[in-house]
Design goal:
Bound molecules: arginine, zinc ion
Structural class: alpha+beta
Largest sheet: 8 strands, mixed
Helix content: 25-40%
CATH superfamily of the largest domain: tricorn interacting facor f3 domain
Strand content: 25-35%
Number of helices: 11
Shape: globular
Oligomer: single chain
């Protein structure tokens, strides 16, 4: 029964008895029992078919991880997930690839579970009512890195002295069960136990270090909403430096001295300087802390893991790469893609931030010259045959998304002027903070703030294949 009908019948009863004071509303509004059904498997994002699940909304992941980098298995863990059921659930799915599950409980009671490819299907002893519930999964194994023909090697990666995690776009579920899609953000807690002598770094802030016999346990808490692919745990021998940026933001950096013996202080300083500069330009820093990790993982990318981007040493040495990854804290991490096809909203913006940093530090050209140089590449198939707003999985991290995406922003800036352009960027991060957003929402915002009809500009730059000729 709806609240409105209950109120109406109470009023009627009060009128009939002629004594409103003594009439009490029914103690518990009797809701017709909702028939429990299975939560949907998959959210329908074509770039990551099957990923994400319906029927619940995760609020918090508590990951208790025992990491033995050289061990087999290298991971023994309990993931405790607090979620809100958005419907009555007879069963539901968690994304999970590989690994061995030994126990699942729902609200403390043992639950039945089964494995289908890339999913853990959980059937609780009794159906779950709408609202808060907790599922705990005990599991172990050695997470398998993803070797993708198009996206390269990513996921849980072994390093010389530990492990590294770079999960974008879809490898979070190779190391913990969850709702692995940016549409479902949550806060995280990490309790990471590692062999003595190694350090475990994760997102957010360090809240405890406890030595016990042959192991050390590091506790990290990430209290701002985070997409699953941005979660990371990096284990190894690190030199660490922490403090506050000149602007007052807590900062923590960890550098593997084997790969970058002299890098700690310059990496710390550049990270602090860029964080403060972007906070002035894009709006307040969205998270509780900033920082980064430099490690020797055999990967071809740096990654904007929330509060602490990860770098291989060759990339950490390039300030524009640091400028790129830190700009993602606003564009990508705080404001996330609604679907992966919107990835230019992350990478086009972060590439534009590289151009801004290069101009500012005098190490690069002006954004207009960056634009001109690429526009002159008339026959570049990478730029012109792929539309930034429709890259598909194969070109997700390709030149069109990054460079033509950034060119789109420069075209927009020239069209609307500097004042409107930076107002659009700031409104974008303010209006979608901690959420997700789509390309049409960006187009609508740009039109609203500039007061101009920009449909043609965005059509030729983002959606059409071919080199734009006028806009
Ligand atoms: N977002 C990262 C960056 O721009 C790139 C991640 C690439 N991921 C991958 N699986 N290749 O900096
Ligand atoms: Zn990027």
């Amino acid at each position: 029964m709806s609240a409105r009908r209950i109120a109406a019948s109470v009023l009627l009863l009060a009128t009939l008895t002629g004594c409103s004071e003594s009439v009490r509303a029914p103690a518990a509004a009797p809701r017709p029992a909702e028939r429990p059904v299975a939560g949907a498997a998959g959210l329908g994002d074509p770039v990551v078919p099957g990923d994400g699940n319906g029927g619940y909304d995760v609020q918090h992941y508590d990951l208790d991880l025992r990491v033995t980098p050289r061990g087999r298995p290298s991971l023994a863990a309990t993931a405790t997930i607090t979620a809100d059921a958005t419907q009555a659930l007879s069963r539901f799915d968690l994304d999970l690839t590989g690994l061995t599950v030994s126990k699942v409980t729902v609200d403390g009671a043992p639950a039945a579970y089964s494995r289908v490819p890339d999913k853990l299907v959980v059937t609780p002893a009794r159906p779950i009512a709408r609202g808060r519930f907790t599922v705990a999964v005990v599991y172990s194994g050695t997470p398998a890195a993803v070797d993708d023909r198009q996206l390269g090697r990513y996921g849980w990666i072994r390093t010389g002295d530990g492990t590294f995690v770079g999960a974008e776009p879809d490898a979070a579920h190779t190391w913990f069960p969850g709702n692995d899609h940016p549409q479902d953000k949550a806060t995280f807690g990490f309790r990471v136990t590692v062999p003595k002598g190694l350090t475990a770094v994760a997102n957010g802030q360090l809240t405890g270090t406890a030595a016990s016999g042959r192991t050390t346990t590091y506790t990290w808490r990430a209290r701002d909403p985070m997409a699953t692919y941005l979660a990371m745990v990096d284990v190894g021998r690190f030199k660490v430096r922490s403090g506050r940026t000149p602007g007052g933001i807590p900062i923590y950096v960890a550098v593997d001295p084997a790969v970058d013996p002299a890098g700690l202080n310059s990496f710390y300083d550049t990270t602090a300087k860029v964080t403060d500069a972007w906070a002035k330009l894009f709006g307040p820093y969205p998270f509780e802390s900033t920082g980064g990790v430099v490690d020797d993982a055999p990967v071809q990318f740096a990654l904007e893991t929330q509060t602490k981007p990860e770098y291989v040493a060759s990339m950490a040495a390039v300030p524009t790469v640091i400028a790129h990854e830190l700009s993602h804290q606003w564009f990508g991490d705080s404001v996330s893609v609604h679907q992966w096809g919107d990835i230019w909203l992350n990478e086009g913006f972060a590439t534009y931030a590289e151009w801004l940093w290069g101009e500012r530090e005098g190490s690069g050209d002006t954004p207009q010259r960056e634009f001109d140089g690429r526009y002159a590449q008339q026959h570049s198939a990478d730029l012109w045959n792929i539309a930034p707003a429709a890259p598909g999985r194969s070109a997700l991290f390709g030149r069109s998304v990054y460079e033509r995406g950034a060119m789109t922003l420069q075209a927009l800036r020239r069209k609307v002027g500097d004042q409107h352009f930076f107002a659009i960027l700031r409104a974008w991060v303010a209006e979608h903070r901690y959420g997700d957003a789509t390309t049409p929402q960006f187009v609508a915002l740009a039109q609203r703030i500039s007061g101009m009809d920009l449909r043609h500009l965005f059509q030729v730059w983002l959606y059409d294949r071919g080199r734009p000729v006028n806009w």
